[in-house]
Structure formats: C-alpha cells, structure tokens
C-alpha cells in the first residue's frame, strides 16, 4: 500500500498544473463620486463562498498566491478569499503553501478613474459598457488588453521556468467585470460575452511545456488560445 501511494504521489508531482483564477469582486456599495466601493454584507458572504469553492478544488500540497486590483472592493474580496482558504486548510489539513499572507496589488487589473468614468457614461446613455468595448475597440480597450496580456505573459513565463515536476500552483487575481470580458474577448476573438457575476471566476491553465497552448475556461466553455 505504501509503495502504491508513493507511485501516485510521484505521478502527481510530474503532472503539475498552473492555473490562474480571475475572480470578480463581491457585491459593493458606493458613495457619491466613489470609484473604490466597499463590500456589502452580501458581498462579504460571496467572497467567503468563493474562498470555499476555491479551497474545495485545491489538491493536497498546492501552492496558492493571491493578487488583487487596487480598488477597495477587490482588495477586501481578495483578503476574505485568502482568509477563508487559510481557515479551511487549518481544519482540513491539505497542507497548502500560501505564498502571500496578504494579497498583493496589481495596478494593471484595476479600473482606473478614466475607465470607470467611461463605463458610467455609457451606462447613463443606456448602453452596456462590456458590449460597447468588445464591439468597438478603443484606446481604453487596448489599454485593458495590454495590461492583462502583460500579466498573463508574466505567469506564462513562470510556468515555463518551473517545469512540469512539483505541486500544483494556483494564482488568484481579483479584478472587475468589464476589463475581464475585454481581455477574454481578445483571447478568443469574441465580440459578445456574458458578463461575470459577483465573485464568479474564469480560469486559465498555463502549460509547463512551451509547445502546448494555454486553456481558458469561461462560463463552462473551454478554449485554447495563443499568447
């Protein structure tokens, strides 16, 4: 039995998966002229549920690293997700390796004031910002695409460097709807996407083999794409 378990463990270590989890922030409330937003009580519950869902999908000994947009609603969501995963791991003993004990901020996955104001302007005109940005590329959409692609390239390079042997690596990035859909639309050449709900995620599995393609999972559909 001991030999069999050892063989299973060795197979797992030779089939490392590296997965990016892009998660929209939880429900937030806003003051007048507020670009930050803070989670509502329901938003906090959503973030905790996202943490539980993430934990359930993590294998024994996985490495987890959490990042966030600089907006308060996203930072709060990231912190609650990480706290929930840490608490569950202490009770369930999966032996996770939490790389960040406090989520790190990625400026480039945030909604800067210009993008937020443009989105609000479109909404006030009765238009859907996501549909407009996907259908009519602009300086805003190109800025969003380049920011997300830069982050994707960073982690794709990491995947190639660390190789196929070792524990799974799961990287959580808490961001916003709008930029997320623009990014996904660019990857799979789509101009019409259903938006993410609060704390809903899409995933990208990065290959450790340079000849393999990354795989995107969005709304239950899988897509291969080139970086």
Oligomer: single chain
Strand content: 15-25%
Q: How is the CATH topology named?
A: Rossmann fold
Assigned CATH superfamily: Phosphoglycerate mutase-like
Average pLDDT across residues? 89
User: What number of structural domains do the residues give?
Assistant: 1
Q: Distance between the terminal alpha carbons, to the nearest Å?
A: 43 Å
- How does the helix and strand content classify structurally? alpha/beta
Along the chain, the helix and strand elements come as HEEEHEHEEHHHEHEEE
- Architecture, according to CATH? 3-Layer(aba) Sandwich
Please count the helical segments.
7
Calculate Rg over CA atoms: 18 Å
Number of strands: 10
Name of the CATH class: Alpha Beta
Report low-confidence residues grouped into runs of 5 or more: 8-13
User: What does the overall shape look like?
Assistant: globular
Helix share bin = 40-55%
Largest sheet: 8 strands, mixed
């Amino acid at each position: 039995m001991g030999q069999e378990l050892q063989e299973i463990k060795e197979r797992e270590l030779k089939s490392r998966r590296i997965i990016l989890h892009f998660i929209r922030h939880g429900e937030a409330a806003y003051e007048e002229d507020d670009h930050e937003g803070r989670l509502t009580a329901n938003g906090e519950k959503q973030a905790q549920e996202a943490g539980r869902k993430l934990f359930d999908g993590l294998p024994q000994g996985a490495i987890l690293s959490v990042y966030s947009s600089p907006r308060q609603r996203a930072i709060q969501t990231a912190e609650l997700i990480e706290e929930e995963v840490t608490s569950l791991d202490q009770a369930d003993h999966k032996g996770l390796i939490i790389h960040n004990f406090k989520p790190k901020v990625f400026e480039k996955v945030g909604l800067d004031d210009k993008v937020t104001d443009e989105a609000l302007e479109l909404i006030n005109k009765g238009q859907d910002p996501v549909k407009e940005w996907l259908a009519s590329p602009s300086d805003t959409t190109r800025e969003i695409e380049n920011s997300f692609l830069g982050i994707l390239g960073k982690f794709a390079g990491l995947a190639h460097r660390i190789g196929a042997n070792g524990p799974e690596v799961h990287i959580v990035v808490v961001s916003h709807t709008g930029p997320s859909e623009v990014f996904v639309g660019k990857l799979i050449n789509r101009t019409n996407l259903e938006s993410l709900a609060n704390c809903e995620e899409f995933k990208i599995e990065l290959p450790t083999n340079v000849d393999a393609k990354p795989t995107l999972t969005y709304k239950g559909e899988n897509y291969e794409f080139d970086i």
